[in-house]
Amino acid sequence: MSINRVTEDLIKFRRPESQVNPDVLEALPFQPTDPNTRIEISNPEFTSLCPKTGLPDYGTIRIRYVPRNKIVELKSLKYYFLQYRQTGIFYERLTRLIRDHLVALLDPLEIEVEARFTPRGGLSSTITSSYPAAPAESR
């Protein structure tokens, strides 16, 4: 079997990013509210698919946020992440998509999503997406 045929077969099993359903995520009340509390969640076994080759991408997703009135329920977050295992999506896009889905669910005071992917071809990538966005002068 040729490499091109393998690539074609891998691409057939790939799902589009539109198949990632944020309705899987659940929020719980954060009580009592406290703007001095920062929550950090790490998923060191995150997997998605390269949208060009269909090969798996492995990485760590780290979420840091200051809740307003709600926190994310962790089991729902695990199931949310599992949807990416068959999704062909670039690192930069998935980082923003996770951020946007969590902002819509939680309305946090602030949130940062960091995606750190293992090296491929000698290159590793780390993408960070924040809400609210940092002012231009601080970047």
CATH architecture: 2-Layer Sandwich
Number of strands: 6
Q: Classify the beta-strand content into a percent band.
A: 25-35%
Secondary structure category: alpha+beta
Query: Stretches where pLDDT falls below 50 for ≥5 residues?
Result: none
- Please work out how many helical segments DSSP would assign: 3
CATH superfamily: GTP cyclohydrolase I, C-terminal domain/NADPH-dependent 7-cyano-7-deazaguanine reductase, N-terminal domain
| Gyration radius over CA | 17 Å
The pLDDT mean sits at 91
Main sheet, how many strands, which sense, barrel? 4 strands, antiparallel
Number of domains: 1
CATH topology: GTP Cyclohydrolase I, domain 2
Shape: elongated
Helix % is 25-40%
Order of helices and strands: HEEEEHHEE
What is the rounded distance between the termini?
Answer: 49 Å
- Give the class-level CATH name: Alpha Beta
The strand line-up of the biggest sheet is 2-3-5-6
What does this structure look like?
By secondary structure, the protein is α+β, with helices and mostly antiparallel strands. The chain has a single domain (3-138), classed as GTP cyclohydrolase I, C-terminal domain/NADPH-dependent 7-cyano-7-deazaguanine reductase, N-terminal domain (GTP Cyclohydrolase I, domain 2), CATH 3.30.1130.10. Helices cover 25% and strands 35% of the residues. It has 3 helices and 6 strands. It has helices spanning 3-12, 74-82, 91-106; strands spanning 27-29, 39-49, 56-66, 70-72, 110-120, 123-131. The strands form 2 sheets. A 4-stranded antiparallel β-sheet has the order 2-3-5-6, covered by helices on one side. Strands 1-4 form a two-stranded antiparallel ribbon. Strand 5 and strand 6 form a beta hairpin. The longest helix is centred in the C-terminal third of the chain and has 16 residues, at 91-106. The radius of gyration is 17 Å and the shape is elongated. The model has no long low-confidence stretch (mean pLDDT 91).
